Amino acid sequence: MSFLSKKILTGFSVFILIFLTAVSGLAQNNEEKRKAGLSASFNGEPVTILIPIWVNESVVLAPTTYLIYIEDTGTKYGFGLTLRGYLKTPKTFSPYIGARGLLAMVDITDGDSVADIVAGVLFGGEYFFSKNFSVAIEGQMNASFSEEKSTQFGNPGNTNMNTATVIVANVYF
Q: Domains (ranges, CATH) in the chain?
């Protein structure tokens, strides 16, 4: 792993730990019935796992992760954060806007590692079947900033822009 990758990973890890500590305190004081949950985001490969934490009745902060292990090749994994702001109080259906950041990493079996940064904005709608289960569809506009050795986004050392459509299944506790 390059010096830049280690520096990015360390900074990102510290940010996530501080942010989650602050948010967990807010979520514990939340009077809403939905406190947190478990979500799966489907957009081809990989399936991303999110842990949505309701900060208040219209804001969700969701730590994000994914993992792909390819035998004899390497491992792809990522850690990030997604923020969703609902445009109306969620009842049956609620549109939302948001932002996301992700540190996308690859560890290749020969010992080389790269870390790319992905940042984006999103707009979607979530349909609540009950207070504990919902499905969302969102559109995203993402930018990826790749390291010189990275092949994750097909443009080493440069910036890419892309759109994506994602389906998210949520279970809330």
A: 3-172 (2.40.160.20)
Instruction: Please write down the HEC assignment for all residues of 142-156.
Output: EEEECCCCCCCCCCC
List per-residue pLDDT tens for the chain, 173 residues long: 554 455 555 655 655 565 555 555 544 444 446 789 999 999 877 889 999 999 998 999 999 998 888 777 778 889 999 999 999 888 899 999 999 999 988 887 677 788 889 999 999 999 999 989 999 999 999 998 988 877 777 778 888 899 999 999 999 98
Q: How many CB atoms lie within 10 A of CB 109?
A: 11
